[in-house]
Design goal:
By secondary structure, this protein is mostly beta strands. The strands form four sheets. The protein has an 18-stranded parallel β-sheet that branches. The chain has a ten-stranded parallel β-sheet with strand order 5-8-11-14-17-20-23-26-29-31, with no helix packed on it. Strand 3 and strand 4 form a beta hairpin. It starts with a helix and ends in a 5-residue tail after the last strand. The N terminus is likely disordered.
Length: 263
């Protein structure tokens, strides 16, 4: 009788475990505990999916912690994003509460997304910020990358420097400074820069057309040619040691200096 009762109790326990999917391996008679997945795929209302790995545990009902991105993340909230060497990451309507970091040879597309921290790329292949994207911090790109910023807002600085980096910026708002130093070609059009706009020691062709600058516009020591047209500068337009000298016209400024005096 005691053995029969024990067998009936064991059957009940097994049924309860199966019904409620109890995760404790010991409770259901297994010697091996379940292991969490190494990564996750996040699907969202935009239909995109992204694969991340590393710190992948949920942080609550409104966010997911994600430290690596190689693919597409849609309209979800994550704590931070890291794009590994050679990977390609698209943030499509994503909310990133921290920084986005882009490694060597990697590609980042920020499409209608919001980044509460900084975007930082070093030796990346390309960085694109577009379609109403908002960055609450700085966008900082060092070496090599091709950078496109279109119809976006950067609440901090947009800073590009060193060999190979290039910029196309159209219809953007930068609430800090816009700086391109020791880079390649630059084209800035129909944009607003609240601080200084600085183009220094670049080797490629530089074009600035139809921009509003809230402080100084400084063009120093560039060797690929400079064309400045229809820009509105609240303070000084300063040009010196450029070879060849800048060309263009119809610029307005509080003061025009040296090579840009007649522009």
């Amino acid at each position: 009788m005691l053995a029969k009762t024990f067998r009936r109790s064991a059957t009940v326990v097994r049924n309860v475990c199966a019904s409620f999917l109890v995760m404790s391996a010991a409770a259901c008679g297994s010697d091996t505990p379940s292991e969490p997945d190494a990564g996750f795929a996040a699907t969202n209302s935009r239909g995109g999916s992204g694969t991340t790995s590393g710190n992948t545990g949920p942080t609550g009902s409104n966010g997911t912690s994600a430290s690596r991105c190689n693919g597409t993340l849609g309209a979800i909230s994550v704590e931070q994003v890291s794009v590994p060497n050679g990977a390609s990451c698209t943030l499509n309507g994503t909310r990133v509460r921290g920084d986005v970091k882009v490694a060597s040879g990697a590609t980042l597309i920020v499409d209608a997304a919001r980044v509460d921290g900084n975007i930082q790329a070093e030796d990346a292949l390309s960085v694109s910020v577009r379609n109403g994207a908002f960055v609450d911090g700085d966008v900082q790109v060092k070496r090599r990358a091709s950078v496109r910023v279109e119809n976006a807002i950067i609440d901090g600085n947009l800073q590009l420097e060193e060999s190979g980096v290039s910029l196309v910026a159209t219809g953007i708002r930068v609430h800090g400074d816009l700086q391109v130093k020791q880079g390649n070609a630059v084209e800035i059009s129909n944009s607003f820069v609240r601080g200084n706009l600085q183009l220094e020691e670049n080797r490629g062709a530089l074009v600035a057309n139809g921009n509003d600058v809230g402080s100084d516009f400084q063009v120093f020591k560039n060797i690929g040619g400079v064309r400045l047209t229809s820009n509105r500068i609240a303070q000084s337009l300063q040009c010196k040691e450029n070879s060849p000298a800048p060309t263009g016209g119809s610029n307005t400024a509080g003061e025009k200096e040296e090579q840009c005096r007649s522009l």
